[in-house]
Write a structure and sequence with these properties.
338 residues, mainly beta, 5-stranded mixed sheet, 4-stranded antiparallel sheet, 30 strands
Amino acid sequence: ITAAEGWALVEVNQSTTTRLAKTTDGGTTWTITPFQGVASNINISDIAFKDMTSGLVMGKDFDYRNVYRTFDGGLTFTYASPHFDDVPMDIHYAGNNTYFTAGGINMHKRVFKGGVVFKTTDDGETWIPLLDGTGDASGLQFYTIKTLGDSILVASGRCNEYDCPIWPVLTSTDGGATWLKNEIEPNNYRGPSPKVSALAIVTDSRLVGYERAMQLPVYTNDFENWFFNPDCFGGNCNAMTFATDNGFIASGQHILKSVDGGQHWDTCYRTTNERISHFNSLAFASAQTGLTIATAMPFNTVVVRTADAGNTWNEIDTLDLHYSYSIWYPSWNNAWIF
């Protein structure tokens, strides 16, 4: 929220249930919220807060994911989605008391229908369906919802059937009133069922993602027709981030860089540390300065830094953390690892 205040999801006492933690002193101390109003078997999978008082969390049990809201800094929560017959996968705060959720509909918990997007402009009191699982959203399940300003919306995920030809991205440039069915070009997609993850809105006309079946980055310049470069790389994408036109991908023991907004990618760093198994997350405080974290054996976290826009990288620290999943780097002298 600010340099001193923020929220995080944590596991308490190595349990399988996540809980919400907040800090008001820049991460020096954290307080676990009591979660009154949320059943103990609900596992919180995603959060979106507009400040330290008000926000939404997404919780899941065996059958469904549901949205809960708080107005008292996480002390109590109330059910915010009584009419949802869906499986929301992502929740996003877009400013001006506006949140979006994206996911898919399961009919009677058995038959999958299609992708959905909901919008609220009153902190979760009422919800407006922007996509209802029919039409171009039929057969899709959305994992990610991204926004730019008040008008640009992008929902991406996967096609729910094996050997499905549908490109799983829908875009809107009018705030969700109408949606464009996206396609992959040229028409030589080689994967069994497309899944687009690690989505980034680079500019008001450029989207970049990662397609898991082909293991290739993909992009569009018109929010409708997508392309990929089969020669750039093939490997896992653990994280993607952009600092201006420079894009970075953490892939296994490599860091890849794009200098043209995600159209082409080249390896800019390959670790020589044999203990590192893979890079987990990337974050940039500026166009020049960034950090990445890597899992190293036996059970350590290695922090690697660049100060020249990814041209060179240096290991700066090894932490006694068995697992590290993400890094937040808001300014050059402050970073958080989770």
